[in-house]
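Input sequence (552 aa), recorded before submission:
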Amino acid sequence: MPVTPYSGSFGREELKHLLRRAMFGATNADLNHFAGQSLNQVVTALLNTSMPTSVPLKNYWAMNGGQRDPNAMDPGVPFGSTWVTTPNVVASVNANVGRMYSFFSWTVGQMIHQDRTIHEKMRLFWYNHLAVQVSVVFNGLLWWRYDQLLRQQSLGNFRQLMFDISIDPCMLEFLNGDLNMASAPDENYARELMELYTLGVDGGYTEQDVQAAARVLTGWNFREYNGPTPIMPESHFTAGNHTTANKQFSSFFNNAVIQGQSGDNAGATELNALLDMICGKEECSLFICRQLYRFFVHGQISPEAEAELIVPLAEVFRANSGAADQMEIVMRALLTSAHFFNADNRACMMMSPADIVIGMVRKLKYTFPSESTHLEARYRMFLDIYYICVNCEQNLFDPPNVAGWPAYHQSPLFDEIWVDSAAYAARNFAVQGLIGQGFTTGTDFYQVASRNVSIDPDYMAIVAEFNNPSDPDNVVDGCADLLYTIPVSQGIKTTLKNQRLLLGQSSDVYWSEAYDLRVADPNTSDQTAQMVPSLINFLMLDMAKAAETQLF
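Predicted structure, token format:
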């Protein structure tokens, strides 16, 4: 049974729904960019992803004789240069701290300045699905390599991704793969491979299968030194640490036996056999498609959703199991499906902190300091945004456990888990701060140019994208369209207009004249015209208090 494609109208509301799920926030510039295109054209553009052209840069330093000195911390990397090509300084904790926080900032910057594609959302999907905790793996180069792998294969072949993840240094360290040897098999990764990554908690495999898979995976490790010389992290297989006996699996896998291998290619040969066996199960395709559904469509999977989308989507997954672009094909089917655009699947999910915070930053049209002249200030502001997400209960690099964030897997609440009494207050405070306060650096910076740098939302640029913003009704409508996923009553909008844009007056001219004066001359001495950005600020602050801002 094929996935039923969407055949209804594809207007602004359908476009907003699609972009909100495929990107972090749907700005007016995004909507205008795709206006007039068909659903297939927009989805093709969203799936046309590419790797970032930028890399994390050294923005850190240490005190040396009372002076801020970049060479006193990670001296092999000049200030403003990238560290991702320099072997790890594993003996220098402070240098690795600098690298990690540089990576945090860079990643948040990629999310904010994302292309108009699904690339950043897919990276976060895979990171949740194949979660690694920075509290366990605190190594800049391992994280960089892991991030690049998720990005490169985000829309690629699932089985290939699982092969590469299984021997990736970051995952090897996180789930003890580097300790898994013939003399003492470690079941940690083998268990999660089946339970969390491919088949699910009730996937049908047995404890015998976990034990056999662990023996298949023996012998893999990674190294950061060649003798005494630091090198870039690399995976390697040691045949002497591998279990060469045959591995017997249960009736769930048709009593399959993976023949024990020896020699330098034994690890790859047996791992390939293991993944062929696991990925050949129908349960694997269904499990992955359910994970995609909970992330991009709805936390709850109803019987109708299972029948209408999950089962046929899993057929697409299996039919393209050998395709290099398997996941792109699957995501195209999902995003163009009739089920994805069902009314029940719109404005039905609580935004993750990443969605609400990164999306709000993008909607507010912040202009961040230049990387070439204000690197420290730029990275500090991105780091501030990272901590805002942490405060809203989503550490982008440290989910609570190996299963990822509970909102994507924990029944029966799923995405509702994001918003409890404490989290809602933090989320509301975050949104109010982004709208009303902006970002300011202090004085503790090596770069003089990065000290005391301030940025604010560009309120005039925001409303300039609305239709005829000289009309205060259009400004309120535009802000509602930007901030909300569901309509608000005309009575509420009229009250907001009168109280915030007209300052209690009764005629629209009080706004129109002031706005037109401000546009004509940003330096006007007219006091009412000078207040226009503040009036927009006050309007958005009031509107952002509503619960409607939390849905997408």
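Checked by second reader. Residues 93-112 form the longest helix (20 residues).
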